[in-house]
C-alpha cells in the first residue's frame, strides 16, 4: 500500500505504535511531523531519562545512533528500535578508545568526561557522561585537583572551561554543523535584526558564544525563547528546533543564524522509515553486554549527578 501524504503516514504510525505498544522518543532536530507523532520530544539528556522511564517495553528513537544506543544501554530489558541506524554523529565517531587509554596512561589520577555524543565503546572507558544541559553542573562536582579530559567536542569543552574558569584537556573534534557558524554571520544577523536576542548552542565556537544573549542545550534554548519578551530571535542551532519554538512562542520571528545549521544525519529519519520500523520491528539496537555494563555506569552517574 502506498501512503501518499504525511497525514496518512502519521495516522498509520499512530495506529501501529498504539497497537504494538511502542514509545516514540524524538530529538528537537527532527522534522516537525516526526516531533508531532512522538510520545516524547527532548534534548539528548531528557531523551535518555525518558527512555529509562519509558512506560512501554519497546522504544523507537528518532535521532542519531548515539541516542538510540544510550536508550539501549540504560534499558537492557527493553527493545530499542532505530528507524535509520546509519543516521550518526560524525563528531561522536571521531575519537578512538586508544585516545582515552593514552590519557589514562599519562594521567592515572585523571578523569574522562564524555559528551553523550559518543559511541558506547567510548562511554565504556569514560568516568562520566555529560550533555550540554548538565556538563557545567557535573564538572563542578568533580574533584578540583585532578586533570579532566573532556571529549570529543572541543567547542563545548572550551565554553564550559571558560564558564567554570577551570582548565580542561580537549580532543580536537567539533560538530561539523555548529562549528561552521562564524562570529561574522552572527554580527551580520544582529545588524539586520538589531532588536533580536541571540540564542546559541554551546557546540558553537567560543567567539560565537561570546556574542550570544543565551547559550544552552536545545531544551534550554526553547525555555529561554518561551520566557523572552523579544519578538525576534536569532537561533544558533539546528533548524529542527524551530518547530518547538514556534509552538511555545507563535508570535516570535525566528532567524536562523547561518544556513549551514541543518544536520543531514538527523534528517535521514523520515516518517516512511518510522512506519517501516514499526511494521518490521527493525532495526533493533543492541550493545554487547560487556560494553553496555561499563557504559551504563558512566550514563547512570550522569543522571545521578545531574539530578542531585
Ligand atoms: P542537545 O543535548 O542540546 O539536544 O544537543 C544534542 C546535539 O546533538 C547537539 O548538536
Ligand atoms: Fe552531531 Fe552536530 Fe548533528 Fe548534533 S548537530 S548530531 S553534534 S553532527
Report the biggest beta sheet as strand number plus sense, adding barrel if it closes: 4 strands, parallel
Number of helices in the DSSP assignment: 14
Q: Beta-strand percentage?
A: 5-15%
Domains, number: 3
State the fourth-level CATH superfamily of the largest domain.
Answer: NadA-like
Residue-averaged pLDDT: 97
The name of the CATH architecture of the largest domain is 3-Layer(aba) Sandwich
**Topology-level CATH name of the largest domain:** Rossmann fold
Output the radius of gyration. Answer: 19 Å
Distance between the amino and carboxyl termini: 50 Å
Helix content: 40-55%
- Uncertain stretches of 5 or more adjacent residues: none
Per-chain topology:
Elements: H1 6-19, E1 22-27, H2 32-37, E2 40-42, H3 44-52, E3 58-62, H4 65-74, E4 79-81, H5 97-106, E5 111-115, H6 120-124, E6 128-130, H7 135-141, E7 148-151, H8 154-164, E8 169-170, H9 183-192, E9 197-200, H10 206-209, E10 214-215, H11 218-227, E11 232-236, H12 242-248, E12 253-256, H13 271-280, H14 289-307
Helix pairs in contact: 1-13, 3-4, 4-14
The protein binds 1,3-dihydroxyacetonephosphate and iron/sulfur cluster.
Give a description of the structure.
This protein has helices at 6-19, 32-37, 44-52, 65-74, 97-106, 120-124, 135-141, 154-164, 183-192, 206-209, 218-227, 242-248, 271-280, 289-307, and strands spanning 22-27, 40-42, 58-62, 79-81, 111-115, 128-130, 148-151, 169-170, 197-200, 214-215, 232-236, 253-256. It has 308 residues and is of the alpha/beta class. The protein has three domains: 6-86 and 266-286, Rossmann fold; 92-175 and 292-307, Rossmann fold (3-Layer(aba) Sandwich); 178-256, Rossmann fold. The strands form three sheets. Strands 2-1-3-4 form a four-stranded parallel beta sheet, sandwiched between helices. α6 (120-124) links the parallel β5 (111-115) and β6. α3 (44-52) packs parallel to α4 (65-74). The structure holds 1,3-dihydroxyacetonephosphate (13P) and iron/sulfur cluster. The site of iron/sulfur cluster has 14 residues, from loops.
